[in-house]
Amino acid sequence: MSLVLGAALNPGGLIAWIVIGLVAGWLAGMIMPGKGYGIIGDLILGLIGAFVGGLIVNLVAPDASFGFWGSLVVALIGACILVAILHSVTGRRAV
């Protein structure tokens, strides 16, 4: 199952991509410093971060194929990058 965004998304792949994005958002909220953006905000950041991570991986390795765990790592990296960008733009929230 390739969940990197260069692959065609069928309904099952789309559901798996959403689940991975949600998990990545939750993990990014736990890993990144600061209070986070709440459960809904972290989950949305994870979905967008999965997209960002997929774009980055497609630029670096265009025909790469990842399983569940690899896709989760890609989505987590994308979500952490997105959270870091948001922290730099909006300012870091107090703990």
TrEMBL record:
<dbReference type="InterPro" id="IPR007341">
    <property type="entry name" value="Transgly_assoc"/>
</dbReference>
<feature type="transmembrane region" description="Helical">
    <location>
        <begin position="67"/>
        <end position="89"/>
    </location>
</feature>
<keyword id="KW-1133">Transmembrane helix</keyword>
<dbReference type="GO" id="GO:0005886">
    <property type="term" value="C:plasma membrane"/>
</dbReference>
<keyword id="KW-1003">Cell membrane</keyword>
<comment type="similarity">
    <text>Belongs to the UPF0410 family.</text>
</comment>
<dbReference type="Pfam" id="PF04226">
    <property type="entry name" value="Transgly_assoc"/>
</dbReference>
<feature type="transmembrane region" description="Helical">
    <location>
        <begin position="12"/>
        <end position="31"/>
    </location>
</feature>
<keyword id="KW-0472">Membrane</keyword>
<feature type="transmembrane region" description="Helical">
    <location>
        <begin position="43"/>
        <end position="61"/>
    </location>
</feature>
<protein>
    <submittedName>
        <fullName>Transglycosylase</fullName>
    </submittedName>
</protein>
<keyword id="KW-0812">Transmembrane</keyword>
